[in-house]
Structures
1.
Amino acid sequence: MASSQQSAGSALDTNFGVDYVICYRLAAADKGKAEAQFEKLVRLLANVGLDLEVRDGDDCSVLIFTKIVSERHLLGEVYRSRIKDWLHGIRLTAPEKETEKLLASEPLTDSERLRIAYFLITSPESEGGAGITPQKGEWKNVESIFPLHNRSFNKEWLKRWSGKMYISAEDLTEIRDRFGEKFSLVYAIAIGLWSAAFIEYWKRQEVDLAVRWGVRGASSIQHLRPEFEYEKEVSDSVTGEKVKVFPARKRLVRQLLQVPFAILAISVLGGLIATCFAIEIFISEVYNGPLKWLLVFLPVGLLTAFIPILTTILTGIATRLTEYENYATIDSYEAAMTRKVFIFNFITCYLPLFLTAFIYIPFGSLIVPHLDIFGLTVESLMDDPKQLQMPKAGFQINSARLQKQVFYFAIQAQIVNLALEIIVPYIKRSGFNKVKKIKSSIASRRGGEIPDASMNDPPEEAAFLARVRDEARLEIYDVNVDLREMCMQFGYLVLFSVVWPLSGFTYLVNNWFELRSDAIKICSGMQRPVPWRGDSIGPWLDSLGFLAWLGSITTAALIYLFGGNGLGPEGTPWNIKVWGLLLTIFFSEHIYLLVRLGIRTILVSIESPGLQKERQERFSVRKLYLEEWLGEEEAARIAEGLVGKADRKMLGEEAGGPIGAKAEDKFWGRQQGLEETLKAGKGIISRSASREKKDQ
Amino acid sequence: MASSQQSAGSALDTNFGVDYVICYRLAAADKGKAEAQFEKLVRLLANVGLDLEVRDGDDCSVLIFTKIVSERHLLGEVYRSRIKDWLHGIRLTAPEKETEKLLASEPLTDSERLRIAYFLITSPESEGGAGITPQKGEWKNVESIFPLHNRSFNKEWLKRWSGKMYISAEDLTEIRDRFGEKFSLVYAIAIGLWSAAFIEYWKRQEVDLAVRWGVRGASSIQHLRPEFEYEKEVSDSVTGEKVKVFPARKRLVRQLLQVPFAILAISVLGGLIATCFAIEIFISEVYNGPLKWLLVFLPVGLLTAFIPILTTILTGIATRLTEYENYATIDSYEAAMTRKVFIFNFITCYLPLFLTAFIYIPFGSLIVPHLDIFGLTVESLMDDPKQLQMPKAGFQINSARLQKQVFYFAIQAQIVNLALEIIVPYIKRSGFNKVKKIKSSIASRRGGEIPDASMNDPPEEAAFLARVRDEARLEIYDVNVDLREMCMQFGYLVLFSVVWPLSGFTYLVNNWFELRSDAIKICSGMQRPVPWRGDSIGPWLDSLGFLAWLGSITTAALIYLFGGNGLGPEGTPWNIKVWGLLLTIFFSEHIYLLVRLGIRTILVSIESPGLQKERQERFSVRKLYLEEWLGEEEAARIAEGLVGKADRKMLGEEAGGPIGAKAEDKFWGRQQGLEETLKAGKGIISRSASREKKDQ
């Protein structure tokens, strides 16, 4: 407990109570300007009630350590934030007003504290924050704002996960035994069912988790984009707050630009991929001249060189377009951007497979002979024209190409990707450290002065500050990158895995590692992320739904084309019956949609625990108010639908009332009391019965 | 104002304050039993606080007039009902507790009063009602429970509507000019766009209207079906009420019986229709023997005879199946029944058209020669075998058949239907009155006694009671009948109207009348309906969506088959390219779905006034509570996100605090106050800058 005796080693486990570290970089050569801006930054931060310490960072940066200044102040902010949640309907019960009760009923989590601190630093001044926008506008020098990792938690987390094994070896053997290895109809049906069930299940699970985590509707509290340009400021008819408005119609018109953009992206990327595809086929299967060993790498080279360039250019256009669409909130901006990026990803990931499956294999023998536009150019360079063995009619297509490609995406690409995610950042970091050491040793040899920021560190903080400097150098985590990766993998699975059913298994294995490698990445490869609240995976859910739907079409087509029922176009596309293919697709797609509807219907009919909890809370809140107002007993009676019967009987006896002068009063006064009514009724019954007898 | 002078004529405009009339029929010959049951009924009604008067009905019935006994009692019920709404989230503000304010803030509408009275009469005793279930169980003798029409309102309503003309003649000419009369691609696109827009618009409009009418979520207050059989009674984890439970899984298994039922219905009805269709074609286009003039009516006769019988049988099975599925609430029961009935309706309405368009016309010349199984049987009866002119190969199909059928549904069927709806009930009623008069005159001649219920009427009530007896004889209005009619019409429009685009116009005309004839029907042809609350057209919306989707397929197919581009199979089905047809369908369907998605996206991005109102109310309610708890000023500050800056500055100056013994305290105490922090930071900046200079 005597923490003054903390060793440097255990200091790695403490964050010194730091909420956020702000990394201020001195990019501006002008020292005076940098100082002035720094002073402004520090004053703004102090102004919103943050305690500050500055330390020397590395590479010309100042590290500003912040924490919320006093418990009382923090509690005030917690209360404000919870009240805001309540006003927006994210929580149903108003938070306790008294300070002690406030935290006793719902303890403050790390996330909540960090979220509040982040808002204090980044919200606009009009909303009570310091208005610091890292890397943007006047705060270009603020490189990053990040919380420090909780080392002991991270260690525990990774340890727990690495010990868990969800899939036993038997399961995997069974999968193999059941689905075999190639073009299985059973597998196709299974994957269709699974994808439909997965989408519907996730939709439900998402809501359920959001309710359990108390973030349902969190997306309705929107964070204003600082770059948002408003046309006018009106007071919101709902909340009475002043709201910055940009007309929806105007935005709609701007959004229409997405159509030409999508066409551009598709034609540019698609054109490149198709061209390289054609070159590759020509060189590997037609061309037989000199330098073949080298030319084989040409299409790969072209793709490797141009895809990143084109993607960067297109992403730039997409960013500008999304900025032009001028979204008011961060969420809607990101959703719009995600939608655009999905188009590139779709083309770069799946187009090569589409080309192989639906162009090259069925129509290869028609198209390949026309590739001699390349053949002619090569011919003139060659000594012997016979080196170009262009098959005129009997060209044999390489039907293993599709399997090879699917195999590549299922195994090699996954391994490469995993390596890129873990190993490359590690190498980068250790390389950086080595470079730094070399630099400093050179400098010390040259000038004698060691230009190291850690020079002036107080010894008991040295280890801690070294760690903070390390974390400051890490990249910022973007959850969309991991979501995109999973979404694209889902796409390979539902679109093409029927070609090689074991690929489903390889993805399973990959994800076992992926889950853990992403955890490692978040814990040690990235700055600790700001704990944003989310209640949905947002636009990615639409992407998953679209891919699964498309999967029902491609899988049917692949089964029909290559199903081994004799219809497969092994170099003989003439035998494919187009109407058969279209009919297969038609049925597969509609059966898929029906199944999905059925699964949704079933899932809806079973109430999820999360929604039940929400309903429970809503009802109990209302009942509580009722009790406060009416007294418990009366409230219970109303809630249970019981009304004192005694009252009623008494009232019943009151019936009739005085005979008034009005016809209406006379009408109701004709039979005084219950007994007279009964007597009159029985009289009618007797008369009717006798009338009926006479009638017969 | 002196209402004692009300004439019999103006008595037609008063309802004597009657809430509901209960018609108790003496079907049981046993007078004693009828009396005992009647006594039980009256006592139960008096028990729940209703004032009662009985009068003689016609045809061996007793009319029991009910009204809620005292204003105080009514107000109690209003309060209970509004509290229940609030507990279930239908209304956001709790109702006023004080009696005067209760009605001053929201006046009691006719509907609310009638709804409350209806619940008092029909709710189970456990829920505080009298538990009367008309025509069911022990209350078989309770023929109906109905409110009386408000004559003056009805008159005003019909007058207002008949004066309104929404569509001008110019519009119609324009429609004709634009779409022509036959197989127009432009029309097909227009109808596809319109149907997609209509569905999405209605979905939004439905929510909007529900919010405006204050019934959003009304379907969440479910009314228990009296026939519901529960397996166990558990106390609801949410409301704490005792809830009767039937396991959802068990119901799901029972629901699976719908599949064989659907197959049965489709094969029985479909088989009948297909058979009659074949007979009709054979007789009208192949057969040329004796009695042709008579035999032509055979298929129509068969259909007219058997369709109602089969429909009745199937409806009986559907009812039993739905009862077996054992739904807990009236709403879910009706939705399940509606879904089943939709299957029959779909087959009986559209199958003849499907057969003509997609079987008879393209494959007629293949199939018709095989119809000679009938030909042979006829042949043996005939004198001259040549009378049966069976065309062997050159059979010419009657391609006008499809247009004729569409024309029939667009014009004749609509007129017949309109006539059935208005004129038949009118004739029925006046016929009934005549029969009654004749009967009574015979009886008076025979026995001298006039067996008329009106004999004993007090003179000032005579006119009123005569009116009530009339209304008691009317049928009960079922909104599903009208919804089904509109839904089926929508189906003709989206599925087949491309065959004869003017049919869209005839439906428009029909609906102009339909709207008004339905109003007349509700006002004078039916008992006044119980004012249920609804927040959706429920399962009919799904039906509309399904029909519109299917329409995108049939319309494409019709355009492709008969589009006049030379591909139309005028007796030459061999020329149709199946892959072309399938490809057309594929594109049409997917373009339709894309357009619908686009329209939905646009509609969602524009906030509807209803939803805005809801958001506004929710927010203002919460803000109100906040103000009550915190005082107005503080609440405004929290809501606007402003926190006193003065507090913060003060807090900022507090920063630092005493240097503690802990490393953490030491860390935060290193720089005392803002000025020291600034100084330290500037020091770092200077050193960094100089380091950088040396480095270069």
2.
Amino acid sequence: MNAEVIHTPALLPLYTLKDKVVVVIDILRATTTMCVAFETGVNKILPVASPEECLMFKDFDFIIAAERNAVKVEGFDMGNSPFEYENPFLAGKSIAFTTTNGTKAIKKSKAMNPHSILIGSFLNISALCERIVKSEKDLVLLCSGWKDKYNLEDTLFAGAVLDKLKEYYQMPDDAALSAWCLFKQHEQDLESLVRASSHAHRFTLLHLQTDDVKFCLQQDIMKVVPEMQGEYLVNLTPQQAKSFS
Amino acid sequence: MNAEVIHTPALLPLYTLKDKVVVVIDILRATTTMCVAFETGVNKILPVASPEECLMFKDFDFIIAAERNAVKVEGFDMGNSPFEYENPFLAGKSIAFTTTNGTKAIKKSKAMNPHSILIGSFLNISALCERIVKSEKDLVLLCSGWKDKYNLEDTLFAGAVLDKLKEYYQMPDDAALSAWCLFKQHEQDLESLVRASSHAHRFTLLHLQTDDVKFCLQQDIMKVVPEMQGEYLVNLTPQQAKSFS
């Protein structure tokens, strides 16, 4: 089977997703936060394109969450820090969610009719890889980037997934090979590289009270694999699969 | 001063080139071949968008050169292998040139009104870096890629330029930092990485008679720095500059 890496959603039109498994990656922080939400027991997440659209779902018993430019949008229940989603109050709830990059990548790939869309983060990397291998489908690792530009942390994660899957997947394209090289170069110290990234600098400038970078680089602390079913992200029951942890 | 890397021309709309020096990079092989042509003594090169347009210049005393999908287009005088351009017959001649990726990247960046457009290859890397530093302008390293997708060899070269310029330029964007990481990881053996690239595989499948990969990775064998002047690439006389070799 083949694995491709797409560095940013802006390059999606160059690819076909038909009959492939797409993993959407937004390490800092949307896809990490989604994993945390499902681990906490959230029922479903509706990815939406804009804060305006998101706001409408307030009337339909959704928790509404919106982030733009790394900060919570005023008037919303929640932002995009994973720490917010550890709150047990969220168990059983439904969330309408919009972020600068991650939810946009989900919406764009959904429009291209892939076999399935999974949510990836370091938190669930081994469970994710088990699910991918079980699919027996070609794989696309879609980095959400920052406003359609390349980012380091998403590419690094794509490389980490490829490293775990190297017995099962070939890397015929240069973007995949490059992502894998980046991971191998930094696998002993992912944090230093990610702290040098432009998005980590953005956090520093915003004086965030929580250390979201460190949190988002924890590996294999949960087994959830959020997956699109219709318009919603849900957490399907994991089935027996090969172990990657 | 700041240095940015753009992985493919498809991402150009996300950037501004105004008042910046743009280096167009197509290591395998257009920008390497252009350097060889000027070293041979070619007078000027006209980058054109299509073989059809290129053909018109046959009537105006141009040598016409066209490559698509790594092979010479039928009916043209020349293709895109650097070895073809070492022919002394070309001294003083003008060439109309169209290639799959490189000439497209030049045309696209020209339309965005940069301060200047320079042509980069490993063959002229130190002379190129001298010219960049003398400009005292922000820098954009534009990888031509392959049909708008990311490629390894152009990114590797962008990283090599950044490494030479690191005392003069900052790398505020993740694409630049990633290119520099790729170069540092492979600087002792660029050839192995480039031979693993998809474009080198394309050459192998075509059973090319010359070893273009090895040729294109030679460093600092010439001092020419082709530059856009109006519609043409020309080789300006180098002025005194810092030494990077």
